Amino acid sequence: MASDRFQPLQGMSDIAAPEVYVWQGLETEARRVLHSYGFDEVRTPVLERTAVFQRSLGDDTDVVRKEMYSFQDRGGRDVTLRPEGTASIVRFVASAGLTPAARVYYLGPMFRSERPQAGRKRQFHQLGAESMGPANPAADAEMIALQLHLLQAWGLDGCVLEINTRGEPEDRGRVAEALRAALVPRQEELCEDCQRRLQENVLRILDCKRSGCGAVVEALPPITDAMSDASRAYFREVLDLLDRLGIAYRENPRLVRGLDYYQHTVWEITHNALGAQDALAGGGRYHVDMDGAAVDGVGFAMGLERVLGALQAGTGEPPSAYRPPDVWLISLGREAFIENLLLCQTLRRRGVSCGMDLAGRSMKAQMRAANRAGATRAVIRGEREVEEGTFVLKEMAAGTQETLEMPELLNRVLALHTCPPGTVEPTL
Length: 428
Ligand code: AMP
What we know:
By secondary structure, this protein is α+β, with helices and mostly antiparallel strands. The protein has 14 helices and 16 strands. The strands form 3 sheets. It has an 8-stranded mixed sheet. Helix 11 (about 335-350) links the parallel strand 12 and strand 13 (about 355). Helix 1 packs antiparallel against helix 5 (about 135-155) and helix 5 packs parallel to helix 9. The radius of gyration is 28 Å and the shape is elongated. The structure holds adenosine monophosphate (AMP).
């Protein structure tokens, strides 16, 4: 059995071939779709000042209270491994002084010190997008459409969109009062955390995962009842736009999402293939005040491990970026080996993916390696071929082979390839 000391930390994983090609396939497809909506990638650091998250996500959120990997660096600064992407993007937008209409996306690891279980990791990966700008129902509907477009482009069917509103900031007091009035008579049934939240941050109770609290929450009146007409009209407009875009949704009057910065539209996308941790993705409109810089936007984040889990549970083939090598070079004898080394480099520079054995193994072992790699063809050279300046080209699937000279061999191998832009075209 492999020793534990070679395993990653609990709740974290190595992602290697062949699975890593599925990740790359998802990423490539996602970049294509995001680009078609006019989003630019931004890569923020994974380590940030703790305040970046604490202030924007809210002190009483589960993420901030229990889940952040926070520590002091060698200079005594409080730093945190990012638990989510939006706060860093907001910091970036504020620091870069970007136009209020910036559209950016990110892709990378997030860290939450949660109890690991199926679908819940300590290092997981999110693809997120943020569309900056003041509250606008069309922007919210567009983000939802984009998110569903991405899931479809990945071949994922059966996603369910649940949606609600948190209303305007001015609604908060009225919503909290209405919730408290409904919850106080049943406070004994709430968990200890929620009893405290009743006074401090009553909205968080709607997010509590404990079953006792869930039963109480189920019976609550919709929070929209306590909201202003303007908030309700905004939400209605988002739903109308979704209808016009042909997007199916389920209104969930108890959905509030776990972070404090949300206002107006919030949503979650679930997939029934995922079991207990069925949240594939979430999103919402937010207003973040970071050190005096106020940033408004709407965004979403999808958990890539969960997307992969749902894809693997389904019947579809997740997109994979894996391409077997076009050619495998097989050498018999030292001279053929040296000539093949040269040919290998030449072909690679022409954009042909090419492999060969470097350990001087037998012909049989080299053939086995070609098969294992899934190479489409093999080019075989022995002493005679080197002397005659010829090559044996073998089509691996058909098993046919023919002897060719250099120009013809190159034409045949290159025929299926166009040189990627910027590739050096060496002379032979
Ligand atoms: P959240 O910011 O909590 O709404 O997370 C957005 C998405 O990230 C979720 O819908 C999940 O798909 C994913 N996610 C969140 N936490 C984890 C975790 N601990 N492990 C794996 N995926 C996660």
